[in-house]
Amino acid sequence: MGGIEPNLADSHIVAMATHTVLVTGGSGFVGSHVILQLLEAGHSVRTTVRSLAREPEIRAALARAGADVGERLTFFAADLEKDEGWAEAVAGCDYVQHVASPFPPAQPKDENDLIRPAREGTLRVLRAARDAGVKRVVVTSSFAAIGYGQGQRETPYTETDWTDPEGPAVQPYMKSKTLAERAAWDFIAREGGGMELAVVNPVGIFGPALNGDLSTSIFLVQTMLEGKMPGTPRLYLGVVDVRDVADLQLRAMTDPAAAGERFLAVAGEAMSFHQMATVLRERLGPAASKVPKRELPDWLIRLLAIFNPLAREAVPRLGIKADASNEKARRVLGWTPRSNEDAIVASAESLIRLGLVAGA
Predict the structure, then answer these.
(1) In angstroms, rounded to a whole number, what is the distance separating the alpha carbons of residues 106 and 249?
(2) Residue 113 buriedness (CB in 10 A; 0-12 / 13-18 / 19+)
(3) Nearest one of 70, 6, 7 to 32, comparing CA atoms
């Protein structure tokens, strides 16, 4: 499949019965990979985009990745902040993969610019799915809803943990994902009408980009490759490959054991930015010639924070390594992710292949 293969060591994905599945946010990084694997498994896929003008571009990106993008893929216009379009998009669907959620590269001035579409958009999708008789919705949440607002800790986070929205250093994105997921579970308990919910909580999502819609994590790799980072701050990030996130989403969609459960999507221990940079230089050679070699001292980041808003956001997280456990996803759903290193290198190789590294 053009080098963007889903993780098909699990033969049940290929063999399982086919269904009609709605994927929200089909133009996005995760959404496009979920579509790719659903099509590979033989499902009929519907996807929502804010503008149907993007349909040719998305179809082309999926086709380059080896997908059969014929009549089994259809597009609907729908916006998380509007009611129009959702009933039509979900009508006749067996399952919904709710992937769409705002994730800007910088924090907004008003946190409600993130919280409102994340929370209200999730509820809008759930209501439409319930009314259409959908069996199960899989919501793509985030580690942001699990591992923040609690300071440093020695033990890995698990699915029983929740971010404290009012905790120290909890930024609007983390708050938006927490409140949106809480709202989803509350809706199912009170108004779900028998519809099932499963939630996937990825850490930083890396892996191959299919187009220019990049995750915030891949922006980090792009910044390193372009030489725009003179040194790495002492920050840590959990890593998972987008192909493995999509694989977990599909498992959570149909496995009876996934109903009513959360699943952390994480490959291994959190990596420092310095470790990521080292992997890029070791694995890419000359293509990583601009990747930073030194780790910046904390005092310098605090000094830069006086003038630089991105440095200011980083200060509360300096030196905090938040590990997460993938034991539940492995045990319950048989999930086996790629390594941190392979996910990061795949990000870089795809950026180079797509011509998205300036000066390369």
Answers:
(1) 27
(2) middle
(3) 6
E strand spans, the chain: 20-24, 44-49, 73-77, 95-98, 136-140, 196-202, 204-206, 236-237, 239-241, 262-265, 271-272
Alpha-carbon span 321 to 19, nearest angstrom: 40
- Supply the pTM of this predicted model: 0.91
Q: Strand 136-140 to strand 95-98: parallel, antiparallel, or no bridges (unpaired)?
A: parallel
Residue closest to 4 by CA, chosen among 354, 350, 355: 350
Q: CA-to-CA distance for 50 and 239, rounded, in angstroms? A: 29
Question: Which pair of tokens denotes residue 275?
Answer: 């470790």
Model confidence over 255-310: pLDDT tens digits? 999 999 999 999 999 999 999 999 999 999 999 999 999 999 989 988 988 988 77
41 by Cβ neighbours in 10 Å (0-12 / 13-18 / 19+) ranks as buried
Here the tokens at position 208 are: 């191959």
SS3 134: coil
Active site residues: 177
Give the span between the Cα atoms of 13 and 4, in whole angstroms: 16
Q: Cβ-count burial of 44 within 10 angstroms (0-12 exposed, 13-18 middle, 19+ buried)?
A: middle
What are the phi and psi torsion angles at 240 (to 5°)?
-150, 145
CA–CA separation, 325 and 156 (whole Å): 6
> Where is 259: in which H helix or E strand?
none
Residue 132 contacts residue 91 (beta carbons within 8 Å): yes
pLDDT in tens, 328-357: 999 999 999 999 999 999 999 999 999 999
Euclidean distance between CA atoms 216 and 227, whole angstroms: 17
Q: What is the pLDDT of residues 66-113, one digit of tens each?
A: 888 888 999 999 999 899 999 999 999 999 999 987 655 566 677 888
What sign does the dihedral 256-261-262-263 (CA atoms) show? negative
